[in-house]
């Protein structure tokens, strides 16, 4: 790692991103382990003892919704969002950086809109109760705006990293 690259990692925004990313990855790992344990237990109870845990399947689905929403934002921070690299990889690095910035802006705007619309949706339907677990559906539905918040945050941090990298790399500033 060059001195410039390591200096970029010391930027407070990028340090915050890395800490948040580590925390979210640990949270996702714990939730996936919980889902795995719950599904395994439900299968053993069902086929081994002909019984079940009431609401176990519903809880699994609810946890999976959270992992999907948060996991999508984690992939933005890792630079693994939806894109096709085959043609982009053939372009000069300066154009690649501009495209990456544009794509991050589009993803950020999309998640801002999704955040607003999901909050409106939750305010309308979020008070209905899950018939099995008897918890408000809003507790599950709030996973969408939470995931959108992290996605927007990671778009901002990735754009910051892109700008810092472009400013520190003289080859990107050449015409």
TrEMBL record:
Subcellular location(s) per record: Cell inner membrane
Signal peptide range: none
Assigned keywords, A-Z: Cell inner membrane, Cell membrane, Membrane, Transmembrane, Transmembrane helix, Transport
Domain Tripartite ATP-independent periplasmic transporters DctQ component: 35-161
Pfam family, one: DctQ
InterPro entries: DctQ, TRAP_DctQ
UniProt GO MF annotations: transmembrane transporter activity
GO CC annotation: plasma membrane
GO biological process, alphabetically ordered: C4-dicarboxylate transport
TM spans (from-to): 26-47, 59-77, 98-118, 138-156
Nucleotide-binding as UniProt keyword: no
Membrane topology reported for the UniProt record: Multi-pass membrane protein
Subunit structure: The complex comprises the extracytoplasmic solute receptor protein and the two transmembrane proteins.
Family according to the record: Belongs to the TRAP transporter small permease family.
Role noted for this protein: Part of the tripartite ATP-independent periplasmic (TRAP) transport system.
Name assigned to this protein: TRAP transporter small permease protein
């Amino acid at each position: 790692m060059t001195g410039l690259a390591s200096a970029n990692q010391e930027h407070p925004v990028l340090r915050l991103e890395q800490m948040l990313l580590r925390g979210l990855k640990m949270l996702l790992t714990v939730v996936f382990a919980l889902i795995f344990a719950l599904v395994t237990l439900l299968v053993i109870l069902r086929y081994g003892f002909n019984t079940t845990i009431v609401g176990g399947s519903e809880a699994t689905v609810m946890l999976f919704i959270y992992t999907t929403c948060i996991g999508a934002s984690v992939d933005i921070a890792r630079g693994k969002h939806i894109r096709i690299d085959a043609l982009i990889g053939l372009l000069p690095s300066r154009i690649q950086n501009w495209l990456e910035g544009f794509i991050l802006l589009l993803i950020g705007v999309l998640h801002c809109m999704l955040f607003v619309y999901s909050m409106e949706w939750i305010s309308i339907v979020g008070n209905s109760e899950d018939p099995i677990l008897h918890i408000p559906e809003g507790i599950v539905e709030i996973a969408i705006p939470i995931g959108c918040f992290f996605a927007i945050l990671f778009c901002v941090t990735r754009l910051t990293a892109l700008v810092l990298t472009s400013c520190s790399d003289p080859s990107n500033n050449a015409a």
